[in-house]
Amino acid sequence: MRYLITGGAGFIGSHLAGKLLHEGHTVTVVDDLCTGAIQNIENLKTRPGFNYIVESIFNRPLLAELIDDHDAIFHLAASVGVRLIVESPVRTIETNVKGTEVVLEFANKKKKKVLIASTSEVYGKSAKIPFCEDDDLVMGGTQKGRWSYACSKAIDEFLALAYWKERKLPVVIARLFNTAGPRQTGRYGMVLPTFVRAALAGQPLMVFGDGTQSRCFCHVKDTVGALAGLIEHPQAVGQIFNVGSEEEITIGDLAALVKSMTRSASPIRYIPYDEAYEEGFEDMQRRVPDTSRIRDLLNFRPTHDLRQIIQSVIDYYKPSVKVRRAAKVPALARRHANRVLKNPPFALRHAQDERRIRGKD
């Protein structure tokens, strides 16, 4: 197959390109490097079947030609990261909505299959855990710029499904849940690489809010494996899939675990959201996917647990960060970190018990 990846020099796109090349496909990456980096694809440049173009997807003649020349498109180009969303809401909305619009427009001319990378953010402030693909989306008010990303990606989904229903363009939507791993940058607010770099350098680990907000992290290799499987499966067309892990951890406990695994002396500090981002900032308290749909279709199960994910990020950053370690991690801190995954806080245990009762675990 000949695959085009928009945003292919980004964290996820570069790993996806590597996987597809390994499987013998031809891959072209187009990226304007706004949030991606040429270093992410440096190791791919000499690989047979790989091509890259540094250009915006808003170059309509170029994009039309590229889509014509390829069998299917992974549309990953987007504005991502909470900090970028808060600081540049116009860019976020325009990039996400207009970018998807132009990809679908040109793909429709010759009915080229498109996989749209969406996000768990679209669930908004929903308190129904775990999130299922058919659940209602609960958005915050329009005066809260933080929700512009979620709304823009929801519009992307509406538009893609409209093309499928009305014009029979084969589309697949993947809602990604906190993908992490080597090459991810913390520049735009991604929490795990930010914690790891700070811990290795002996700097404070800054936890925004009270640290009780929880997330589920999925290794990038598992994520791209799911994306590759979805675009190839005929029964995935016209559907939405959660892609992620169901292993939940609070951000406060994540900081403690990173500190323990790096043997860091760094303090953990808690910063109010108003200071970290903007006054009145709202966050999702829990973000847990129901992955039964993709599991039923692809037999998808993450192969990396949270400790393995964290270790992969540590191994990636350790050579480039001047490591400052504590001589010995205090026993109390060590015991606390080791308890994190075995004995999660009551709220998380309660939710896990509920899922078992419903037959989800």
Describe the structure.
The protein has 361 residues and is of the alpha/beta class. It folds into two domains: 206 residues, Rossmann fold (3-Layer(aba) Sandwich), CATH 3.40.50.720; 104 residues, UDP-galactose 4-epimerase, domain 1 (Alpha-Beta Complex), CATH 3.90.25. Helices cover 42% and strands 15% of the residues. A seven-stranded parallel sheet has the order 3-2-1-4-5-6-11, with helices on both faces. It has a two-stranded parallel ribbon with strand order 7-10. The chain is globular.
Summarize the biggest pleated sheet.
Answer: 7 strands, parallel
Q: How many DSSP H or I helices?
A: 13
Would you give the CATH topology of the largest domain? Rossmann fold
Which value, in Å, is the CA radius of gyration?
20 Å
CATH class annotation of the largest domain: Alpha Beta
Features:
361 residues; alpha/beta; Rossmann fold; UDP-galactose 4-epimerase, domain 1; 2 domains; two-stranded parallel sheet; 13 helices
Topology:
Blueprint: E1 2-6, H1 11-22, E2 26-31, E3 50-54, H2 60-68, E4 72-75, H3 82-87, H4 89-109, E5 113-119, H5 148-167, E6 171-176, E7 179-180, H6 191-201, E8 205-208, E9 214-216, E10 218-219, H7 220-232, E11 240-243, E12 248-250, H8 251-262, E13 268-271, H9 273-276, H10 292-298, H11 306-317, H12 331-342, H13 346-357
Parallel strand pairs: 1-2, 1-4, 2-3, 4-5, 5-6, 6-11, 7-10, 8-13
Antiparallel strand pairs: 9-12
Helix pairs in contact: 1-7, 2-4, 4-5, 6-8, 6-11, 8-11, 8-12
